[in-house]
Fold this protein.
Amino acid sequence: MFRLFAIGLVLLAGWTVYLDAVVTDRFEGRRFEVPSRVYARPLELFEGASITAGALERELQLSGFHKGAGEKPGSYQRNGGRFLISTRGFSFPDGDEPARKVSLAIAGDRVREFSVVKGKAAPIIRLEPARIGGIYPAHKEDRVLVELGQVPALLPATLMAVEDRNFYDHFGIAPLSIGRAMLANIRAGRIVQGGSTLTQQLVKNLFLTRDQTLLRKANEALMSVLLELHYEKDDILETYLNEVYLGQAGTRSIHGFGLASQFYFGQSLRDLDVHQIALLVGMVKGASYYNPRRNPERATERRNLVISEMEQAGLIEPGRAARARGLPLGISERPSYSENRYPAYIDLVRRHLARDYREEDLRSEGLRIFTTLDPAIQYAAEFAVTDTVPRLGGSESLQATLVVTSKDSGEVLALVGGKDPRFSGFNRALDANRQIGSLIKPFIYLSALQRPERYTLMTPVLDKSFTLEFDDGRRWQPKNYDGEERGEVPLHKALSHSYNLPAVRVGLDIGVDVVAETLMAFGVDTPISRYPSMLLGSVSMSPITVAQMYQGLATSGFNTPLRTIREVTDASGKALSRYSLEVEQVADPAAVHLVQYAMQETMQEGTGRSAYNTVSRQLTLAGKTGTTDDGRDSWFAGFSGDLLAVAWVGRDDNGATALTGASGALPVWSRFMAQVPQHGFSPVVPDGVNYHWVNTRRQALTDEYCDNARLLPFIAGSEPTQTVSCSGTLERRIRGWFEGLFQ
Amino acid sequence: MKIKTTFRAGAMITLLALAGCASGPGGGIYVPVGAEPAKAPEPPRTSGGEGEAPVWRKSEQPDVEPAEQKPPRTSSPSYSEAGDGLSPAALSLVREADGLLRQGDISGAIAQLERAQRIAPRSAEIYFKLSEAYVASDQLGSAEQFTLKGLSLAGNNTRLQRAGWLLLADIRRARGNVAGASQAEARAAAL
């Protein structure tokens, strides 16, 4: 008997040691897989910084600041345009930003009266950057890991009130509860009560199968005690919050409150209200039985029961409980799987990271990734797309993308991958390769204008149809969009009005290869066809490639590689990689300046002029429309003094639409530009460029107040030598002066 | 060693330029969104100016011919004679970068200069300072490109132009491009 007992004891001891190894191994593995954290760019605050009061408040909230008196770190106070902000301080890769209290006013969409009230004085400070996502460990399912310190305190409190009141006091199992449950089960003749502690539930979730056998129960109890021996209560609770099973989406299971909050409410856990917390906690008992989408009545009943328990436990006031019980479930229509607010942007970040990091390191090493995303710009970009696309008319299947970069740094500030910016599917901004149409024309004319002895902005080019016959007998006869032919037009007008025939003629004169080389110099890394039809944009590119290509036009011929990441550090803050600003001169700044002139003219007189229906006239802009056959692609690429944006509108199936670049993409683009405070485009005149008043029809210098006088930039030496004066000189001059005087 | 002393001259000049610089008129005008956007499409204008002149035109330089000063006659494409000056915020970052550079923390200096570049992207001085930092880290190719970028924003500011061309000459010589260096020097001398 004794021997049998001794053998049993040894076996039990061995079994316990085995279980202990299992418990610690699995638990550690789960706990220490820390996802990489992705941050937006930090907001820099200084006298004159460009931001609206609304955008500043949104930014503060996104960075986790609370509205209040602005005295405690991490809080702010707003009175109209006045802000008092107490920052928390943050450890950036390039140094620590101490906690400070700053006072400022927003007037005319700029920061004014900036001063540091408390803390180290500085003319410029950085806010803690907003966390915009993570790259999570995936055990076949996405996870939105939460930390105990970040969840609303009501959640664990409710969970304990409902599931395990003595969680902080027991040692893993609660014999009394088990006894009670057994009694109830015996009375009922079946299993009606669990009596499991949170620890036991976690053990069951992590290590065991779902069947209810005695042996399994014994293992569960033993492992629970072992888990409690090794780990703190808070660690166990945090892991529970991230492990608990809360639903099913097809073959994927929904684990953890963070993901469930997204899945059911489309909201972040920290923003949940009382009735939503109650529902999630209620679902712990049976996620499928109480599924609020399938069984809303049952779920509501269960939720209200939890609310009553919260009230009884003193977690909420009776009034608040009553209000919460009266609320609808508030389930989002469509399940959303990730806390990732910016799926298209994070997708681009991941692709950039993939060049230097292994996927498993990103998922588990707790790296900190500092991106260039500007939440205010992203907000404006998403709004422009979601607000404009439904108004464009036509088919439901119309899609749109918008890429926004910082003109001089090449940082990608915002990315919208489709008309539903939260949808993390096909990322059109990166993967939709579409013909670019007339977006190619600035590069044709740039190639030409780099030969000032042959081409100036004034050079007459022929707007007249012609037929190109290839060796194999095929014929190509390009046409203008409107079918008209205008004879001789000055080059600047041919570009600003996007006439096809002069563009093809100039392109053929310069050479298709030369144009292709220009495109490659400007950063196009996709193959470019060398057929003449490429001169009308039969080359396909993604919106992000177009943005890269236009970067050089916007910055006077300096190719600036697009970046989404500034820095990557390890979990302790040690820098791993820096992605620095790079510039490379790829074209003659003088020739680019001339193209920029015509692209400004596009906005003022040409195909882009309807932008000023939406945008203030004060904002000088430059840009280019693009349309492909049957309106399959509607493009607009353009820039201000600060920003470059590329908009595309079309259908995924490449079907025809009734849109042109000006009626599809331009409204999206202008809607975006109109919402962002910024500087107008006003390029510095490069060395070797001079402005002259000219009469383009007569190909001659003329007087400022003559009819048809236009102030055009010329590369030194290419300006006309002849001068024409206009008739009725004196009278006209006097009139001209008065016009100026009485404006 | 010789390269270092040569560059010191360039750096000095850049510093001098920085010390003397003030916020110029440059760049495009700032347009807040608070301003009421135009409600109806405006026809392209043939005459008449806007409320505020975005830039001074060559023919309208007040110090040359004050009588000619008037708003732009047509809504014609805009241009500037010079890039932007440095705001106190940007200047403080540049000074911080200078300090880091002196301590030999080149990547720290570049990080601060890139911060400055983001808030003052049209200021030639920042690009010259970046060039200086890349010279210090012996990345002369990058240094040359940043100098060119700075020069593209120097406009009619002869002090900045001279600093830029001399810096470029130094860098080109260090890279073994003697002809390019002489060319840059000639440009500086011609100012």
Remarks:
- The longest helix of chain B spans residues 2-20.
- The helical segments of chain B are 2-20, 88-102, 106-119, 124-136, 140-152, 158-174, 178-189.
- The radius of gyration of chain B is 20 Å.
- Residues 171 and 177 of chain B are 9 Å apart (CA to CA).
